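Inverse folding, one chain.
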């Protein structure tokens, strides 16, 4: 332990702090080694970040620590005592709690029921105390600055809002070691800032935090130490204050990767492709878009910014027809007025929507690449409800080759691909429809740094080919890296428009909170 780390521990105190030690941890499946000889220590009062590309071994390591899997090799100690977990409940008894990136909520249950799931207050030791449950859930959400209706079924929430419920549930479990897997991947910058404060407060209280993130700015903002895994091997651990993003990227990918602004070969033209005028939309009786107007040029990448709930997703879904007919205003594509009320309208109009939840509604995970790529093509090319297998395979091969999908072939199951490659399949299936306008909602959510760079480059190349792009993101640095121009929404309204030169984190944040 360095002098700097010792000072850090002394500053935070060490009462009842946990120390988790991993010695020689290895994991094999059917003789294939996925984790090798990992030695790590996680200390109470410290925020220790795990980094690595998809497939590096992070998820396997987390499953071992949280009792989901037993290691093939090695020893696991808590406060100097060797332990073995048969199930996650065993880990929880030792104060180890995991907050998964892939949401584990019950869609039909309310926010309150999900927050207290498995830990419901009871009357007479048997019956759930509904009043206490409501009060505890409301208090938990308020503590973290999250404003959600506790009686809303989780299935009716956006992905980012569902992630807030997952976060609140994990934080309520009085963890001694809290594992947070990409906790801000679906949050806006403002919500992420709130979460950062919560995590810092937990560390000051002596909780050991294992933080997993692909967001480099977030890593340096919150981490004490950073450990990098690559292809199942522990590459090294660094003090966050004594390393750089360039060094961490080299450790992750084994080479230097420069994440620079996308260089466009052909600038956007002055020709207006999509025109939106006075667009308002409702979710039931709640107004989610309020008089939004903008133009999109041919070959332009237009960013859509705003906080969680600002209307980014609702805007893209309305344009595509995924929100039904509960809207008013004018949508004009290449001079033709449109009235999309179902996704088939969006496909036929030449729009393609890449949703923020690729696993929930972007892909069928137990089907092949070929089957997934064929899905949006069926309304366009199938005859009598059938689509030829030869055409499916042709389009899948094209997507694999063009987007450099790491797969064995068209029949490779999508669920067995990495997050970055899954996202490429989502893009590939929509590019097969030859869209005029590409609607991207959080296109890099939960994917590693190398895959992000590839997605940025791909979006730039598509725009160079004349495809117009709407790019919605909660990661502010992405706008500066990818977009020609951006609009910022706040409470469903237009808060402002920024050229590429005018974009900065502070400027975007100020506009995003303008009407709050």
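Residues assigned per position:
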């Amino acid at each position: 332990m360095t002098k700097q780390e010792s000072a850090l521990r002394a500053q935070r105190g060490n009462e009842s702090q946990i120390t988790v030690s991993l010695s020689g941890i290895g994991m094999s499946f059917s003789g294939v080694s996925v984790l090798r000889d990992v030695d790590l220590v996680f200390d109470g009062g410290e925020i220790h970040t795990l980094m690595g590309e998809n497939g590096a071994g992070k998820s396997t390591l987390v499953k071992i620590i949280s009792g989901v899997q037993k290691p093939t090799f090695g020893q696991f100690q808590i406060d100097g005592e060797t332990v073995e977990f048969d199930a996650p409940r065993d880990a929880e008894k030792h104060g180890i709690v995991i907050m998964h990136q892939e949401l584990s909520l019950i869609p039909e249950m309310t926010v309150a029921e999900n927050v207290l799931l498995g830990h419901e207050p009871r009357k007479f030791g048997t019956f759930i105390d509904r009043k206490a449950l409501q009060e505890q859930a409301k208090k938990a959400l308020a503590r973290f600055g999250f404003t959600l209706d506790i009686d809303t079924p989780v299935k009716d929430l956006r992905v980012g809002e569902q992630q807030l419920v997952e976060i609140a549930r994990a934080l309520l479990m009085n963890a001694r070691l809290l594992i947070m897997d990409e906790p801000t991947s679906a949050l806006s910058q403002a919500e992420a800032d709130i979460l950062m404060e919560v995590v810092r407060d937990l560390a000051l209280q002596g909780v050991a935090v294992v933080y997993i993130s692909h967001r480099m700015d977030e890593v340096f903002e919150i981490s004490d130490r950073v450990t990098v895994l690559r292809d199942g091997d522990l590459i090294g651990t660094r003090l966050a204050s004594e390393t750089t993003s360039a060094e961490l990227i080299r450790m992750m990918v084994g080479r230097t990767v420069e994440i620079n602004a996308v260089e466009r070969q052909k600038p956007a033209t002055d020709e207006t492709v999509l025109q939106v005028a006075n667009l308002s939309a409702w979710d039931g009786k709640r107004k989610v878009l309020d008089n939004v107007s903008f133009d999109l040029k041919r070959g332009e990448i237009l960013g859509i910014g705003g906080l969680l709930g600002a209307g980014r997703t609702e805007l893209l879904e309305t344009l595509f027809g995924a929100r039904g007919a509960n809207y008013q205003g004018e949508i004009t594509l290449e001079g033709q007025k449109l009235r999309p009320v179902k996704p088939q309208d969006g496909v036929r109009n030449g729009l393609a929507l890449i949703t923020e939840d690729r696993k929930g509604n972007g892909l069928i995970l137990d089907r092949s690449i070929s089957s997934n790529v064929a899905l949006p093509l069926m309304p366009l090319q199938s005859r009598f409800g059938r689509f030829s297998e030869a055409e499916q395979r042709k389009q899948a091969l094209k997507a694999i080759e063009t987007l450099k999908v790491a797969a064995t072939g068209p029949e490779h199951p999508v669920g067995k691909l990495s997050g970055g490659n899954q996202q490429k399949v989502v893009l590939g299936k929509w590019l097969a429809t030859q869209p005029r306008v590409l609607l991207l909602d959080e296109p890099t959510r939960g994917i590693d740094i190398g895959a992000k760079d590839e997605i940025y480059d791909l979006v730039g190349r598509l725009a160079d080919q004349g495809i117009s792009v709407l790019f919605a993101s909660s990661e502010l640095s992405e706008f500066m890296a990818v977009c020609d121009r951006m609009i910022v929404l706040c409470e469903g309204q237009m808060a402002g428009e920024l050229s590429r030169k005018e974009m900065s984190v502070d400027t975007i944040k100020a506009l995003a909170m303008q009407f709050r």
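The CA atoms of residues 2 and 237 lie 12 Å apart. The longest strand covers residues 32-43.
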